[in-house]
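Field: sequence (string)
Field: structure_tokens (string)

Example rows 1 and 2, in order.
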Amino acid sequence: MKKLQIADAQAARAAIQREVARNEAARYEHRLHGLLLLTAGLSCRQVAVLFGESSTTVQRWIRRFESGGLQALREAKRSGRPHLLDAGQRRQVEADLRLDPLNFGFAARVWNGRVLSEHLRRHYAVDLGVRQCQRIFRQLRARRRRPRLPAKRR
């Protein structure tokens, strides 16, 4: 019987690793599969090479499993950096973005990262960079567009 092979194994490997990294459940199962190979007799180094991980990472999986069982292989909740805008401020900014920037004393007629950054600094005493403000637009799914002008009468 002919050995089956994936045509572009390197690209497939990269795509699979991205998929594993994208999903918390997949990362847990990734660790389980690694430990399963370790119990079958493969070394940390061999598993690390197969899984595209460092041997230190695989050793960490073993220590976590030994100290806390399967549950320890799951990811713990991480708090991350706290938001600079609280929930109420965020709702207010969302409402602000529905209005023309001219209402807030800006010369611009369109909201963009630079205008929003300055607006947050002036009205909320929050200093966010232009790039972070662009992320806020994306999170709020706000479109940067000009407000509709009244139709011209003929």
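Row 2 begins here:
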Amino acid sequence: MIKPGCTVTKDHLKDFLASIQAMRKTQCYVGIPAEKTPRKGEPINNAALGYIFEFGSAAANIPARAVLVPGVKSVQKDTIADLRHGAINLFRDPSALERSFNRCGLRASTAVKKAIVALGDYGPDSKTLQARQRRGFKGAGIERVTGQFLNSFTYVIRGK
């Protein structure tokens, strides 16, 4: 309610409420988007590799090496702070929310990549390492042959 003697010069309430509704309908997804799945010269795509990496494969005797969920959870407090900052500044700057969603996505996808790199090297008895050595690869790093898998992790911002 406007008090007597006050004059409204600009009413941005409708825009503000529309922005809040847009925020509620916006989600940030972290992982391997469909357009990032192909692998050059490989029969399996990055999304399938990501699933196997995260959950393992009993049939192929591959242990789970969860990185997606733990990586995203590791920055959850920071992403909540980013979104809070975007919402607070929404009234002054309509693009603040979009920037905060992008910060969240970048922060979370970077955390996932760091989690992959932190896994280190395959053990000397690893069949994967032995297969790579037969193909001429010298390193023992989990994701370091071409970088295709590591680089496929990103984020997308979409409405519900």
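free_text_note (row 2): The two ends are 34 Å apart (CA to CA).
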